[in-house]
Structure formats: C-alpha cells, structure tokens
Hints:
The complex is a heterodimer of chains A (233) and B (181).
Chain A: H1 3-8, H2 10-14, H3 20-32, H4 34-51, H5 62-78, H6 82-86, H7 95-128, H8 143-178, H9 184-203, H10 208-225
Helix pairs in contact in A: 3-4, 8-10, 9-10
Chain B: H1 8-16, H2 20-42, H3 44-61, H4 71-90, H5 116-126, H6 129-140, H7 145-152, H8 156-174
Helix pairs in contact in B: 1-2, 2-3, 2-4, 2-6, 3-4, 4-7, 6-8, 7-8
Amino acid sequence: MTCDKTREQLTAYLDGELEGDRGTAVRGHLRTCDACRAMASDEAALRDGLRSLPPLDPPASMWAGVQARLAKEEVAESERPAWRRALARWMPSSPRFGIGMAFVAAVAGVVLVLHHKHEMKRDMVMTTLPHETQAPAPAPAPAPSNADVTAEIAAAPAKTSQDYAQATKELLAAARTESATWSDDQKQAFDAKVGELQAAIDGAAEGRARHKAYRAMLRYLQGAAIRDEVALR
Amino acid sequence: MSAQLSDDAQLIAACRRGEARAMEMLYHQFKRRVFGMAHRIVGATDAEEVAQEVFVRVFRGLERFRGDSALSTWIYRLTVNASLSHLARRGRRQEVSDENIPEQAATPEPERDPGLAARIEACLDKLPAGYRAILVLHDVEGLSHEECAAILECRVGTCKSQLHKARARMRELLGPIGDRT
C-alpha cells in the first residue's frame, strides 16, 4: 500500500470506519512507514483534542435576550401586512408550495409527453408516406383541431414564463417594500443581484432555460422578502 | 411536567401552544450545543447574538416544523446556517484569543498537553467556515456523519471528504502534536 493511499484513508481508519482488509492494509503500512505513522499520530491527537474541548456555557443573560427578541418579533408579526403573510405560499418549505410545484411539474410533464407524441406521429407520417403509395390516402386530419393543439403546445413554455414573470413582479414589489428597513449596502447588493438574475432571465432561451432562471430569481426574492424565515425547513 | 415533555413531539406541541415552561425547557436542552457551535464558528463576540437568533427562529418556526428530521438535527441546521450567514453578512473578525474564550467553560478533562485546547481553538478560527463547521459538528460535538450530512444538507461521502480535508488543514496549522514515541 502506498503512502498516498494510506493518507487518503487515514481519517476513516482512525475513526474506525475501515473494515476488514482495508483497515488491516492501512495498519500494516503504518507499522512500516515512519512518516505516515507520524501523520496518523498527529491526526489522532488532533481528533482527541477536538473531542475534549470543553463545552461552552452561554451567558446567563441569553435566555432573557431570546425572550425579548421573541416578544419584539411577535409584535412585529402581528403588525405585518396581509401581503407579507400571503407570501408564505411561495415559501419552498411550505407544503402548499410543494404541492403547487408538483402540479406545475405534472402539467409540464403532460405537455412534454403530448409534444413528444405529436412529434413522433408527424415523423412517422413523413417517413412512411413515400413507401405506401398504393395504400389509400389517409383521411386528412382535421386541420383546425391539429393546429390548435400545436399552437397550445408551442405556447405552453411562454405561458409558464408569463406565470413566472407575474410571480416575480409580485415578489419584487414585496421585497421593495421590505427594503425600507435595509441598510444602503443591503439595498445595493439587492439591486445588483436582481439585475444579475434579470439579465440571466433575459438572456435565457424560452423554455426550460428561462424557467430555471426565473426560479433562481424567485428563490432569491423569497429570501429577500421573508428574510427571517428563509432558513426554516 | 418533565415526564410529560419527555419526547420531542410533546415538547414541540407544548411550545406551539406557547407554554413558557416548555419553551424554557427546550432552550435549556439545546443552549449549550447551540451556543457552543455558534461560538466556535462565528467567534466569541457574536456567539450570543447568533445563538439568540437561532432560538428565535426555532420558536417561531416550530409551527412549520414537520418532523422530516429530528428536532435536534433541525436546530443544529438552523445554528450552522445562522452562523455561516452571519459570517457572510458581516465578514470574519479575528477574535478568538485566550481571554475571549468564555465565560463559564465547564471543567475540562485532564489533558496530556495543557496548551493544546487553546491552540486548537486558535487554529479553528483560521479555517475556512465550511471546514470549521464540519469539525465542530463531527469532532467537537460528536455527531455522526449521517447527522452532519443532514445538517449540512450534503451527501455522507461529501461530509467525510470535507472532514478529511479539514483535519489535514488543521494538522498543517497546528504542526506536530502527536505522541512520537
């Protein structure tokens, strides 16, 4: 066993995570290699040192501080405008958001399947027609209906983009309202990030790429508009 | 009361009802680890502020806590996220020194190298925040790789790899410390 291979596995070996032959191979190498043995000794001492660091007791005043902040935030919550509470439906942690996204994904999936089937059917017609000159000509499909389906399929990505754009507009307005309480630095950082994300949306091709860019924007705006809730899971 | 709140579900339910004693019980159950993690990730000066923020988020977020993970995992995830966000917002301040290591530290077990703990604390402070987080969770707090992965929202393999790199970086910073005899 080489020194490099031994050192790659040193952490796992010292933590007892290497079993059977792999552990034996590392142990065997350590018996014969002074450099690796010294490294193992250092890492074991470091691990033991970290494990024996004393626990840290918080200051006795911390609980009072938590209660004071909690009270302050609860008062602020009670005064929060209705739109702020309504924004909760955009929260990734919200079950409603999950259901909504699942619905959007399901619709997108159906649209893709329909689109794929339509393409396959069209390809089949295109490839088989020249070889079936003796067969009776197939009845022409009802043109208006076919045209409508195609138009709907073609319009689906743009419609989704419109929905995303509307959601972005609403969240942006909410974040702008929230920004009244931010520092100038925070406002600048927010504007720069929104500009960057909007540029990504504008530069993305219609369809999945643009939708992905919109989702990035929505995630950022959620965090900005509901800053104290974004870390909750 | 203690028996009634013996498990997480009962404790959470009581906290959701706004029972002050339950909230205080939850606080005391997690205060050391939350404060300790925050202290070792953000440093002494901001640790209390971050820990307070974590508990406020915990109590306000319990309503939406669905129990997908253990209560402890969720609280530690909030702690790590709040600590890393705090560092990102305000920038890292160099502040861990012997006089800043607090407060009412519990009595440590006897050590072979009495200065090692202080050296380790000082070197922790020099690590990138991500390395610091994994070392604190796994080595200091003794959480499993699975728990660390759930808290850091990464794969177990990534967690192990990060721990390996973090320890290697710490060894470089500390220099020889092992028993060479």
